[in-house]
Amino acid sequence: MKKQALAINGIPAIVWEEDSQKVLIAIHGNMSHKEDTVIELLEMKQWQKDIRY
Protein backbone atom coordinates (compact mmCIF):
# COMPACT_ATOMS: atom_id res chain seq x y z
CA MET A 1 0.00 0.00 0.00
CA LYS A 2 1.47 3.34 -1.05
CA LYS A 3 1.26 6.43 1.16
CA GLN A 4 1.24 9.93 -0.26
CA ALA A 5 1.48 13.03 1.94
CA LEU A 6 -0.39 16.11 0.76
CA ALA A 7 -2.32 19.14 2.03
CA ILE A 8 -6.04 19.76 1.64
CA ASN A 9 -6.76 23.48 2.05
CA GLY A 10 -3.52 23.74 4.03
CA ILE A 11 -4.37 20.79 6.31
CA PRO A 12 -1.81 17.95 6.26
CA ALA A 13 -3.29 14.68 4.98
CA ILE A 14 -2.20 11.24 3.86
CA VAL A 15 -3.65 9.31 0.94
CA TRP A 16 -3.27 5.56 1.30
CA GLU A 17 -3.26 4.71 -2.38
CA GLU A 18 -4.67 1.76 -4.20
CA ASP A 19 -6.88 1.96 -7.28
CA SER A 20 -10.47 1.73 -6.09
CA GLN A 21 -13.96 3.14 -6.48
CA LYS A 22 -14.21 3.49 -2.67
CA VAL A 23 -13.10 6.27 -0.36
CA LEU A 24 -12.51 5.96 3.37
CA ILE A 25 -12.03 9.11 5.44
CA ALA A 26 -10.48 8.62 8.88
CA ILE A 27 -10.31 11.64 11.18
CA HIS A 28 -8.06 11.55 14.22
CA GLY A 29 -8.49 13.50 17.43
CA ASN A 30 -6.37 16.13 19.11
CA MET A 31 -2.93 14.85 20.17
CA SER A 32 -3.34 11.91 17.79
CA HIS A 33 -1.52 11.40 14.51
CA LYS A 34 -2.74 10.70 10.96
CA GLU A 35 -0.29 7.80 10.70
CA ASP A 36 -1.39 6.07 13.91
CA THR A 37 -1.51 2.29 13.74
CA VAL A 38 -5.28 2.24 14.30
CA ILE A 39 -5.88 4.35 11.16
CA GLU A 40 -3.59 2.11 9.12
CA LEU A 41 -5.39 -1.01 10.40
CA LEU A 42 -8.78 0.54 9.59
CA GLU A 43 -7.60 1.27 6.07
CA MET A 44 -6.34 -2.29 5.54
CA LYS A 45 -9.56 -3.84 6.89
CA GLN A 46 -11.78 -1.55 4.81
CA TRP A 47 -10.36 -2.84 1.55
CA GLN A 48 -10.51 -6.47 2.67
CA LYS A 49 -14.25 -6.24 3.37
CA ASP A 50 -17.10 -4.27 1.90
CA ILE A 51 -17.68 -2.20 5.06
CA ARG A 52 -20.11 0.70 4.82
CA TYR A 53 -20.37 3.36 7.53
Strands, total number: 2
Overall, the morphology is: globular
* Helix-strand string: EEH
- N- and C-termini, Cα separation: 22 Å
Give me the number of helical elements.
Answer: 1
Mean pLDDT across all residues, rounded?
Answer: 72
- What does the main sheet amount to? 2 strands, antiparallel
Low-confidence stretches: none
Q: Estimate percent helicity.
A: 10-25%
Strand order of the largest sheet: 1-2
Task: Find the structural class using helix and strand composition.
Answer: alpha+beta
- Roughly how many Å is the radius of gyration? 11 Å
Strand content: 25-35%
Explain what you see:
The chain has a domain at 21-53. The protein is globular, with a radius of gyration of 11 Å. The model has no long low-confidence stretch (mean pLDDT 72). Helices cover 23% and strands 26% of the residues. The chain has 53 residues and is α+β, with helices and mostly antiparallel strands. It starts with a strand and ends in a 5-residue tail after the last helix. The chain has one helix at 37-48; strands spanning 2-8, 11-17. The protein has a two-stranded antiparallel sheet.
Descriptive key words:
53 residues, alpha+beta, two-stranded antiparallel ribbon, globular
